[in-house]
Design brief:
Blueprint: H1 3-18, H2 22-33, H3 39-55, H4 59-74, H5 80-91, H6 95-105, H7 113-130
Helix pairs in contact: 1-2, 2-3, 3-4, 4-5, 5-6, 6-7
Length: about 140
């Protein structure tokens, strides 16, 4: 696929998504994942597919597509999809899973210093949230 066609498809998928036509946008982005574009570009299309599933409130599919994107990017020492995954896990209330993703990124020798600072901050924030004491009135039922 040439670059102009690639750009046009992304633009079309984005327009469809913004117009609320999630199914048509999904088809565009799935077509790109299944095309001959680079693995890095496929990983970015996996993010788009995952976000569509998020909007559709289909968490299992969203998570599956984030994981697929991670597989595309991992061999290229990239971590963008992994960060999206960690944010989504946080949004789902799966703080410990999100923390594991961030902690797995930190040892990478491919991180820029600014990436390390951002990831350390997210790790610290998650640890604080996870370890925040929960106060209950005596005799109150547990949630």
């Amino acid at each position: 696929m040439d670059y102009l066609e690639y750009q046009n498809r992304i633009h079309r998928g984005t327009q469809l998504f913004e117009a609320g036509n999630l199914q048509a946008a999904l088809e565009v982005f799935l077509g790109l994942v299944n095309s001959d574009i680079s693995d890095i570009d496929k990983s970015l299309m996996c993010i788009n597919v995952a976000v569509i599933y998020e909007k559709s409130e289909n968490s299992p599919q969203a998570l599956q597509w984030y994981m697929r994107g991670v597989q595309y990017e991992k061999s290229h020492s990239r971590f963008e999809v992994q960060e999206y995954l960690a944010v989504y896990l946080t949004e789902l209330g799966r703080l410990r899973d999100s923390l594991k993703v961030y902690e797995s990124l930190l040892p990478s020798s491919h991180l820029k210093e600014e990436d390390k600072v951002r990831i350390r901050q997210r790790i610290d924030d998650l640890k604080k949230e996870i370890n925040k004491p929960v106060y209950r009135r005596p005799g109150a039922p547990e949630e």
